[in-house]
Amino acid sequence: LPGVQVFAVAFALEVSVGKTNTVVALNNSNVLLPCTFTTCIGFQDLVFTWYFNSTEMIYRGKIKSKASEPFLVSRNPRVEFVGSTTGKENISIVLKNVEFSDAGKYTCHVKNRKENNAEHNATIFLTVVPKMVETDNTVTLIIVGVVGGLIGLLILFMLIKRVVLFIIKKTQDGK
């Protein structure tokens, strides 16, 4: 159509904390807070920041380009960067000596200058427990066993029915 122009702006930056957005940590242990990012057009002077409960900045880093490793801008002394940009763009951190007061929302925030300063983030929730509890799966195993047994019996019954009907048909054909 003459005179009609369509402009589409698509930012290719995506930030992820993995398959689950909840992490459980044992009190006084170290916990990994995962975060990765992907971008179709690359990145330049990318800034990533981790926030605790949306307000407290606990880590800020910068990556010049794909060929360079991230470098620290500022951080909480209990936070250690464990990511790398060689291979997958990993900007994960480890929170050391977790305390109950560390439970809450952690947001990995990424800003890419190459994408007109597009900003994206992903959130992970940390729960701190006094001890790890082993889950009792006995009831689940019983239910699965009973359902599996019933399905097996049903298949066996259908197989016996077929054999009996086959025998009856053969004996009737023989008469």
Summarize the structure.
One of its GO terms (cellular component) is voltage-gated sodium channel complex. The chain has 175 residues and is α+β, with helices and mostly antiparallel strands.
Task: Give an account of the 3D structure.
By secondary structure, the protein is an alpha+beta fold. The protein has 2 domains: 14-129, Immunoglobulins (Immunoglobulin-like); 137-174. The protein is 21% helix and 35% strand. The chain has one helix at residues 138-174, and strands spanning 14-16, 22-26, 31-33, 36-38, 46-52, 56-63, 71-75, 79-81, 93-95, 104-112, 118-129. A 6-stranded mixed β-sheet has the order 2-11-10-5-6-7, with no helix packed on it. Strands 3-9-8 form a 3-stranded antiparallel β-sheet, with no helix packed on it. It has a two-stranded antiparallel ribbon with strand order 1-4. The longest helix has 37 residues, at 138-174. The termini are far apart. Mean pLDDT is 84; it is low at 4-10.
